[in-house]
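User: Is it possible to get a 3D structure for a protein together with its bound compound? The compound here is zinc ion. I've pasted both below.
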Amino acid sequence: MAQENLSLVLHSKGDLRLENRPVPEPGPNEVLLQMHSVGICGSDVRFWQHGRLGDFVVKKPMVLGHEASGRVVKVGAAVKHLKVGDRVAIEPGVPREMDEFLKNGRYNLSPTNFFCSKPPDDGNLCRYYTHSADFCYKLPDNVTFEEGALIEPLSVGIHACRRAGVTLGSSVLICGAGPIGLVCLLVAKAMGASQVVITDLSSERLAMAKELGADFQLTVTRGDGPQQLAQSVADMLGAQPHIAIECTGVESSMQTAIYAVRSGGVVALVGLGAEMVTVPLVNAAIREVDIRGVFCYCNTWPTAIAMVASGKVNVKPLVTHRFPLEQAVQAFENKRQGVGVKIMLKCDQNDQKP
Ligand SMILES: [Zn+2]
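Assistant: Yes, that's possible. Here is the predicted structure of the complex:
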């Protein structure tokens, strides 16, 4: 094993560097992974560009990356379910305490979780990385490393659709056709949604959404009124949708989601934007529209892997660009400029395959 561990380190706002770090040793309940494929997330770019995301501020150098898969190269003494050579998908959030949230099965809400590439916790855009073995999930032979890395964004879609209550026959509005809007689309269709309409400013993104199974695409123009857009959604579907899943974090889009949804329906808020937003809350209240928050995911990895392995969900078209880890800064620049859908970084020098 090479003893160098090339890592993509964010030192502070705007200061992204590739540098060598020591290869870590796994603790008793950990595995050492040789990283294979890591997707670039919008949050990684936000930390690079702004040095913060919400309350999370970069104060010391941090390795980026959290949408990842790799190969087990060493196992801790207490690890029973994994062995050297296993290919795994990594769940980046790991509880540190047996608190009420963990007991209730909602461990994503625990305030003390470790989380890859959330300051100050290191991510896995590197050659070698250690992680809690309980949060590494073995991939079946027919699931590629890139599909393994895409289990993370797919998990966001599963958790969002669960929170929104998507079920057989649901009609769903998805606001935003970026990577998260697209995984919500894939999951909503797999969960039995009968009709999905998706919105975006970009006709290119909407073309991808159509390819992935969206029944209707609505092109939004800056300045369109939320009530007028809500009417367009109802006109397309023939009725108001039961559910709206908001993936942009943009105030006007949140307003559209509320106006669009049917009385008694649900609005799930996935997109992160400004801390304070103005929305038609009274309109929602008098129509008994439930507004639900969505934060990451919990208990989704086994489901997501099963859906990909069975072919019920196809995430492969989401990967539009690939760069070797050595070109990570260039890859981030592409992501910043909004190129493609999902950019994969290939961390294994000897295996750059999907
Ligand atoms: Zn992410």
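The CA atoms of residues 102 and 222 lie 42 Å apart. Residues 41, 43, 66-67 surround zinc ion (CB under 6 Å).
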